[in-house]
Amino acid sequence: MLNRQGRPSAAGEGADVLHPTFTGNRALLIEEALLFETGRVEVTGVDIEEAGAFTPRLGGLERKEPIGLPGFSEPEAMRHFVRLSQKNFGIDTGLFPLGSCTMKHNPRLNEKMARLPGFGDIHPLQPVSTVPGAIELIDRLAHYLKTLTGMPAVAMSPKAGAHGELCGMMAIKAAIAARGEGETRTVVLVPESAHGTNPATAALIGFTVEPIPARPDGTVDPADVRKALGPSVAAIMLTNPNTCGLFEKDVKAIAEAVHEAGAYFYCDGANFNAIVGKVRPGDLGVDAMHINLHKTFSTPHGGGGPGAGPVVLSDKLAPYAPFPFLAEGRLVENESQAPQGTEPFGRLVAFHGQMGMFTRAMAYMLSHGADGMRQASEDAVLSANYIRASLQDLMSAPFGDQPCMHEALFDDSWLKDTGVTTLDFAKAMIDEGYHPMTMYFPLVVHGAMLIEPTESESKASLDLFIATLRDLAMAARRGETERFSGAPYHAPRRRMDETRAARQPILRWTPPEPIKDAAE
């Protein structure tokens, strides 16, 4: 069905048929057109003087024709982007079962601190001598990260979790090369329950990746690791807690086996938010671990950055931390400034451009204190186990009744013969006002549904979420497939063909064919 503007109908088709509107709007649910559909290329909301005579300096690459972008009045532009923002789902809208992996509550106090003069307005090209407060904040934050992890050193420059993985693995590669084993230790072991960026990072810097299977309880067996170890193994990349939401109970035995074989233990610290104040990774034998500040210490995630993924390092890897780094309270930016005994593998970034992320994380730590951060971990684990216990009579948990950490994992075996898939179930959640949980990941579980409520949701909020999922689960079991197969019905747009969109993306907008009026 096409509306008056010639676009596919939005959700709520029944209402459109029974009570059509000329505009396509449905009260405050305004049908938002593309800028190219509503703008006019011949106008603009800003008066710009005609350029005088000048000599182009673009080497013949300057534009030969008008740019062709649509113009708007100021109110039109403002309304367009406000209405688009109202179609977004975010943590300020409702519970986000994707959890800290993508979005969790960020206290507004932290945002205020990040905008303080001296933090929010400094420039990367300022002389270091003019930013002593920023240097001190980075140094203090680094101290807290080392204290929380039980590790002696930290590289603060990586700008994301995957960037941190790269930093840690490059430090491992440099340490192996310094031992004269760079040509022989070329294999990295990666459990099947690891984050997907782990094997990608190892492969990117020239390692060969060998998988380690998960045992039936979802964790890694030290015996399987020992079988895979040998003189060619450089490291293992283990996520703990792992992507099944489980703590690797044999992590110390795995670390001991890895070290005995002369390899290094890289721990993916993306799930550190489940164990802060409870477990120090350094005590487990970890040699390197990145910390996603956006997951554990509240800073915003996504949107293109800048992010922050500091990497803590053991004594064996500390000398290889990249430039720039702090030593005795001063910023070391190149080889001439490096203390004796250090062999930085190079430089990952030009500047500490993620100053705002550091400031937010520091504000979070100071406002919570040691006991508050420990409680946040405990509450995250409690919330996830509450959801698991409240749903497992209707939804199948692949690893039985064992407690989970910060996220509860379900599979799709309970949907067998219902005609409803994991994707259908997730789309129906949208109609109920919830963003879907993580779907089809981790890969070791068929039709996975991974739910992370975080530590900041109230019991009342969790209870409503649980009741909603129970209602959906019972509807699926009753065979109410129509509720799922066409979902979402109430979103601004109906279900998309996501596979086709990924494989055949339309990257250029073209005007639709005009709708001809019916003959009188």
Automatic annotation (TrEMBL):
Keywords: Oxidoreductase, Pyridoxal phosphate. Residues 376-474 form the Glycine dehydrogenase C-terminal domain. One of its GO terms (molecular function) is glycine dehydrogenase (decarboxylating) activity. The keyword Oxidoreductase applies. It catalyses: N(6)-[(R)-lipoyl]-L-lysyl-[glycine-cleavage complex H protein] + glycine + H(+) = N(6)-[(R)-S(8)-aminomethyldihydrolipoyl]-L-lysyl-[glycine-cleavage complex H protein] + CO2. Residues 483-520 are annotated as: Disordered. The keyword Cytoplasm does not apply. It comes from the Bacteria. Residues 186-302 form the Aminotransferase class V domain. Its EC number is 1.4.4.2. The glycine cleavage system catalyzes the degradation of glycine. The P protein binds the alpha-amino group of glycine through its pyridoxal phosphate cofactor; CO(2) is released and the remaining methylamine moiety is then transferred to the lipoamide cofactor of the H protein. This is glycine dehydrogenase (aminomethyl-transferring).
